[in-house]
Design brief:
The chain starts with a helix and ends with a helix. By secondary structure, the protein is mainly alpha-helical. The protein contains 45 helices and no strands. Helix 26 runs antiparallel to helix 27. Helices cover 68% and strands 0% of the residues.
Length: 1019
Amino acid sequence: MGSKRKRGANKPGANGNQPTQKRAKTDHPPNDSKAPLDLEKTPFTETLSAQDRKREASIYQLLGSADSDERITAADALITGLLASPEPALERHLDNRLFRGLASSRNASRLGFSLVLTEILGQLFGKENLAQTKYTGLTFDKVLNILVEKTTIGGNVPGQEERDCYFGQLFGLQCFVESKILFSEESRWQKVLDLLLKMADKKVWMRSHCGWIIVESLPQMGQDRAEETLQKLSDIGLGKTAEGVGIWIRARSCYPNIKTPAKPWHDPMSAVVLPEVARVLKDNVAQDSGEDPAIAKIKQSGWNAQLHFVWDLVLASFSGEQDTGRIRNSDQLKLFWTAVVDDGLFSKSASDAQKFRGFMIFQKFLQGLAAENKQLVKELFTRNLMKCLINQAAKEDRYLHRAASKSLQSIEKAVQTSPKLLLPILRELLGKFGAYDFDIRTNSKTVENLLQWATPTNAKSILKLLRDPILTTNDASSEIEKLRQVYSNYVSKLATQANLASETSNDDDGGDATNVAELGVKELASCAYSVQKDFKPDLSEKSREVFRRALASTFGKLMRQRNDAEYLCNAVVSLEPTAVNMSPEIETERNSALKAMRKLLKANKKSDEKHAGASLGLAMLYATTILQLYDGAPDAISILQDLQRCSEKMKSKESGTSELLVEILLALVSRQSNMMRQISEQVFEAFTSQVSPEALELLTEPLFAEENEKGYQALFENIEDEDEEMDDTEGSESDGDVQDVEEDEISEIGSDVEFVTLNGEGPMENGDDEDEDEDEDDEAKQTEADGEELANFDDALAKVLKSHRLDKDDEAASSDNDSDMTDSEMMALDDKLVEVFKQRTKASGQKREKRDAKDAVVAFKHRALDFLAIYAKHEAANPLAFGLLLPLLELVRTATAKPLANKAVVIIETFAKAFKKARASATTAEINVDAEARFELLAELHRQAARDLSHAFARAASVASLLVASSLVAERKNVDRINAVYAQTFAACQKGEIRMQGFFFTDWVNWGMGHAANAQVET
């Protein structure tokens, strides 16, 4: 019977789904919610019937479940039934089920069985003392012997089975400790302690588990028994181990006046014995690595990097988590950390395993101290640890790179949890044992990410911390420039990430976080344009250029993040450009611009929301143009004068304001500056409602320019020095700006553009095959042209050298003249070769100029499209917006650069969506449509749609046509005329007069059916 029950109990372990299948029959309905288990709690009998066997099997099956709720329910039913059962039944369960089940590795069997045993033992030998009143045959010694008997293996057994038995005995002894019954009689603890020490001595890998059980029992035993226990551990030599260190620390924490043995130490945390403690804890790494011959094979097959419990006890002694005892100060932690961790686990002679353990200890202590004792965190960043951290984090191929990276992440997490740690941790990372360029050294963004947690209260201290190391330095000139560049990057991150900090910090006032950004902007501006007397040596022009680029980048990013950028203008107003040489004329223009900007800022505070945006936008244009004036931009003065006229016209409400503003914005975005682009778009967005038809025409005119040198001259004919503009386009004031432009173009294109018709239908699945063919043809033509140019160059060289290529041996004429050339012939040959290469260089230069001209035109068209996209999004209900459809379609058809065509298509699509929303929210009185002009536009769109059969163009034409139709369909009398236009186009297509894509008409049918369904619902 016993063997049958054993097989029956093991069978569900092999098939984990069996219990779920049985319970699934009672689950109503079958969903994630579980029906409560209703288990019988009646007493168990001594003799078993078939029904009793089934009941016990079900309970024990649930007792080993991985679901904690099921385990608790089963434990409750089992404990209630056993305590109401006769003694033979209880003994049978202890003997055949409970203690034996501790050796099972099935699911969570040990946890469930331990829960039951702890309660049973507490009832038998605790306060209730049922062993003397009800179950007199179950003495303490008998129950303990049952545990030892059922968890002892004799003979040659598999290693896993032996391991399960040892863990079963360990869990059983822990049940005796947790039931708190060992110290009511003198002999009980000694018997359990002997078993623990025997197990720890026989199996080294069990030593830490046995030591932890002793630690758990210390608060229960009292000071006298604790002294006896420590003396016994000292006598057998267990005190001088990692477990001994932990037991000593816990004992002194529980009983501050305890008399500890003289050997191995009275207090393992005292300065006298720290070197010996360091050796013990360092050797613990080797012991955990599987040096015990009995378990070497198991350890090698799967090493688990788990910290010893002694480190939790050490951390608790410093963080104040102990129940009683001494709380150690900063000097004690510094002494312990340096001796044990820094000079031990991170020493030059330490192994990789020990350094790995050191990183784990660092992460644990950082997390623990950050939550409980923040002032001690700074003591963790010691010399050897920081050196190892920087070296291992630098490259991914380093052995401990992942451990170092996790340590860096733990630093960020600690500051995120406790922002007050930002300043002390930054001081350590950038200070004595760290490196000012910490992020560069570690190839990470640790310092950058930490700066986002700056608050208004500590922002000035952080800026001072970042600034002080670079004020006075004796390093080489190249090193100085490098450090100042790092400083500019830090300040830029401090400014741009202030918004993120304000949203996630505990500060309720978002305006205070703005001060952090303003502080960073002012620092960048002063370093870029003002004389800094604190810097020794003085800031070079190269360093100032670095700060100017950082300032421009910061301006652009902040404009993306914030609608209220008044503090940016204040930073420019407060700036004293003492490092900029300005003529009296420039000084006058600057003062006039600053005065105008102050007036606009005042007007911004007094105006309503609509006009406040316009005033602030103009103020931002003044601010950025003044910065350009400081940079020496040749057209900055003329732009300031234009802004002055624009401000006057806006103030007097004269016409032509929007045209002048658009001209200014186009002049600014032509510089390919990220800052100019962001600010120009923000300003234009504030003025969209005031844009006139003439201003829109200024924006659409560049779309018709040819993408070559001729188009370049047409767009930039008003620039005095075209060569200089070409250089600006060819090169870049900032590599990041050019890259930003290219990334924007690519990100907005994709391999296919998704088009949505007005009735909500999705895009066609077929790709733009014809456009792809065109791109392939262009590449083929370019390759052919390059090959032809190279062949001509080879022929020219062959004529001069009177030779030929190796693949033309058959065509070459034979020559019997093998005599050497004279000096004069050599000189003549040299002149001819120079001329050939000169012609080659000239041809390459012309080709490069053509390519640069095309790139400049394409980039300018992109910026114009950005403005049009903003207008179409915000003014979709404005009748002027419909005038954009034909220029956009023309660009889709004629653009040689596919990104331009795709962006134009996206604008049409966005226009259609925005119009649909605007029409839904507008009232009938607000809809003012010139029907005749719209029908003329619709007819023209149909004529344009027939000019190109490409998929993308036809889809864009269809969306544009349906957009115009949707603006007319509100008046039912226009429905017939709309259908007539489509019918006329369809008839022309049927007759062969024009050719069009079929979906142009299917989109119309679907759109019409959608409106028909809506009309039926309304009626």
